[in-house]
Amino acid sequence: MKQLTTDFGNPIASNQNSLSAGELGPLLLQDYQLIEKLAHQNRERIPERAVHAKGSAAYGELVITEDISKYTKAKVFQKGEKTPLLLRFSTVAGEAGAADAERDVRGFAIKFYTKEGVWDLVGNNTPTFFLRDAYKFPDFIHTQKRNPKTHLRCANAAWDFWTLCPESLHQVTILMSDRGIPASYRNMNGYGSHTYSFINSNNERFWVKFHFKTKQGIKCLTNEEAEQIIAKDRESHQRDLYENIEKGNFPKWSVKIQILSEEQASKLEFNPFDLTKVWPHKIAPLIEVGEMILNKNPQNYFNEVEQAAFSPSNIVPGIGFSPDKMLQARIFSYPDAQRYRLGANYHQLPVNRAKSEVNTYNVAGAMNFGIGDNLVNGAYYEPNTLGGAVENEMYLEPDLVIKGNANRYKAVDNDYYTQPRNLFNIMPEDEKQRLFKNIAASMQGVKEEIINKALKHFELIHPDYANGVKKALCK
């Protein structure tokens, strides 16, 4: 039998009864283990994520089977490379106690423990998003959360915002389609969503989008099916993922990319960095890269899932950013959220720590348990003459040509309707009917003038879209 101890390894004589002044007397402050247990319990919950609060995760591996070295020098993408990873799935709008089978966008965040450091790809199960400028992001999230007066979710706020920001129509159509409620995390695709850059060994830049195509097949739930599941199991997706991995039924995804040269991107009729739009496959066909597999469950949910911290700011040589305005803002906002939620040294937690060598001059701060070779050598600043870590200009990226004056530019591309129309046109008739029904259901309690604004937008996408929603609203 193992000896029960305090957090500092001191043996505990009794863990059943508090220390009191006599059998019926008051408790004593010197009962340090009672104080420790109560104080620790008060701190067992860290602030939940403002977005993507409810999540599940698993470990796995990325295996590169194709040669794409002409696009990137990143070691993680060289043929034959195998990279361990952690993939966290989540819902976006719900709190930590939300049901897994709710209609919502699903987060698809991957932490790759590469030989060149951690690379985080923070995506969703949709290739687009509601916004293209992060200036609107806090307001958008407010519409998805609880009304501060009623403390209830507010469909009126959601549709009011969407109808005033028609760039969201593409994502709204996806959300209200069959794919708005995946049957499980295993049965959905994942996307990097943003445009990133690849840098090859010749220091040439390419724009890239990442796709993860499920090998389990796409499976979705209707509203009625989801309601039946939620009534019995609010953790349906977590249960499905955990149990399948425990059985050895490891989920897999095909990894693909889309590539555009800088010249090709400059000639497009739409902004290739607009997160509300996709790159049509006829312009940028999918390129096979490899396979991703999940094969191990976390052993401690809090340590390995709740404390997992992702940020698109974590990149490796050969992978870079783009002028995508949403991505640019997330480069700051994601790590800042983790500094607030987990502390300044969240990167030292085992689930977040790089498996490659780390040399940094960031020191001190709460929960700092890293020593670092630099500090051992006495080098805690840079530049120094103490043999500390130094910069290496070989990792500089090629220049990104920037034109124009600093200003608060409105998007030039106001075509909010073509891509949603293209999506609507390829939907089978039965899915269109479910789309109409789902939208009508989501509009319960929404003001008539807001519904009418939405119908005008649907009319501009396609007359059949508007007519279908109208009929569904009348039922």
UniProtKB/TrEMBL annotation:
Keywords, alphabetical: Heme, Hydrogen peroxide, Iron, Metal-binding, Oxidoreductase, Peroxidase
Gene3D superfamilies: Catalase core domain
Entry cofactors: heme
Keyword Oxidoreductase attributed: yes
InterPro entries: Catalase, Catalase_3, Catalase_clade1/3, Catalase_core, Catalase_haem_BS, Catalase_immune_responsive, Catalase_sf
Keyword Disulfide bond: no
Domain Catalase core: 5-390
Substrates-to-products reaction catalysed: 2 H2O2 = O2 + 2 H2O
EC number(s) stated in the UniProt entry for this protein: 1.11.1.6
Family according to the record: Belongs to the catalase family.
Protein name per the record: catalase
